Amino acid sequence: MLALRPLLRRRLPPALLHREFRRLWLGVLAAGLAEEMLAVAVGWQVYAIHRSALDLGLIGLAAFVPLPLLALPAGQLADRLPRTAVFAGSIAVEGTVAALLLTVTLTGAHRLWPFISLAALTGAAGAFGSPAARALAPELVPAELLAGALALRSIAFQVATVAGPAVGGLLFAVRPELVYAVAIGLSLLGAATILRVAHDAVAEPADAEPPPRLESLLLGIRFIRRTPVIFGAILLDLVAVLFGGAVALLPLYARTILHTGPVGLGVLRSAPAVGALVAGVRLARRPLGRRAGRTLLVVVAAFGACMVVFGLSRWFAVSAVALAVSGFVDMFSMNIRATTVAFATPNPVRGRVNAVEWVFISASNELGAFESGVAAALLGAVPAVVAGGALTVAFAAVWGRFFPSLARVDRMEELIPGSEASAQRA
């Protein structure tokens, strides 16, 4: 066993050699697996109720609504309380949601409102847990390993996104209740693992004069607005996934266009994560070097092009490949955005900044799911997906004119914590 340790040290990415970061990574992985398994089961059951794309959009809207209401106090909590406790508590709530979904399934799952209500509870749990979770990695590894650590954090999400839907689809095909039972166990495991992470307290200095309550809550918004490289990066991600994303319509595509079942749906949901996982491994071992800003614009345009191909495809293999390539380029986009935020944000306000960032991310996912459902109901699924992908390409082409400092970013490590300094250095 001792002889294996030098080999593991050579094989593992450097950030995973830090014990506390490994625990964070494993906790994120367990929670992510549970979340993705639930998404497959809920999507299939919700679409089966009325065979309505709008119902799928309503689930996304319900998950998003709590976020803008809770984001600011959640960011404040992440900067005032132990971040591990906040994150673990949110995972435990998601496990409770899985238990309630199990109850709904056992009673027949014929009504839409329980799924909408529980989606809202899931959104509330994510709103409180995500700022703390996203602020933890920079505390656990040295600055020179941060870009690789953030790539590894994304890998945990992508591994969950690959395995979760596939396993969830298989379990659902055997018996729907199995999906929820396994998700409960994974949530408990994730929460327990996160609670074991030891880290330094990062709240504002105790001897500092506390700012007024409203001013403190709004600090994250003001900071992002005064930092063009952060504001431009997260706003571009919002626009790209809001218009270019098609994940919410996958149950519709699986049933009516590609003519596949729950297992095929699981494969389609996993395909973007397969591509993202390949990109994440590359970024974890060799983080992005020069021309980060221009790379961001290129990969967002490529993401939109993949959505156009997916929207037009009638062949399962072509659709899966298009989704996989979209995941590959989207991983580069996510890594550039997350690393930019981590380097340009001072630690005492990182929770509040990450809370605002999470509003943008969730708006692009949950609100994007609602937009996809509405657009598909009005225009049809294929025109909605193709038009959204084309809009994403167009936005990426002109974004540098609106945020020139973002387009000029070279090495992200050169960003300085602090608003004006970050903008000037970029």
Question: How would you summarize what this structure contains?
Answer:
By secondary structure, the chain is mainly alpha-helical.
- Through-space gap between termini: 47 Å
Tertiary shape? globular
Sketch the topology as an H/E string, one letter per element. HHHHHHHHHHHHHHHHHHH
Computed over alpha carbons, the radius of gyration is 21 Å
Look at the helices and sheets and give the structural class. Answer: mainly alpha
Task: Tell me the fraction of residues in β-strands, as a range.
Answer: under 5%
Ranges with pLDDT <50 over ≥5 residues? 200-209, 419-426
Instruction: Give a short account of the largest sheet.
Output: none
Q: Tell me how many strands there are.
A: 0
What is the helix content?
over 70%
Number of helices: 19
* CATH class designation: Mainly Alpha
Under the CATH scheme, the architecture is: Up-down Bundle
Number of domains: 1
CATH topology: Growth Hormone, Chain: A
The CATH superfamily name is MFS general substrate transporter like domains
Q: Roughly what is the average pLDDT, rounded to an integer?
A: 80
Would you mind describing this structure in some detail?
With 426 residues, this protein is mainly α. It has one domain (15-198, 216-425): MFS general substrate transporter like domains (Growth Hormone, Chain: A). The protein has 19 helices and no strands. The chain has helices at residues 4-11, 19-50, 53-64, 66-80, 83-106, 113-140, 146-174, 176-195, 213-217, 219-225, 228-244, 250-257, 262-285, 292-312, 316-344, 350-379, 381-402, 404-407, 419-425. The relative contact order is 0.16. The model is unreliable at 200-209 and 419-426 (pLDDT under 50).
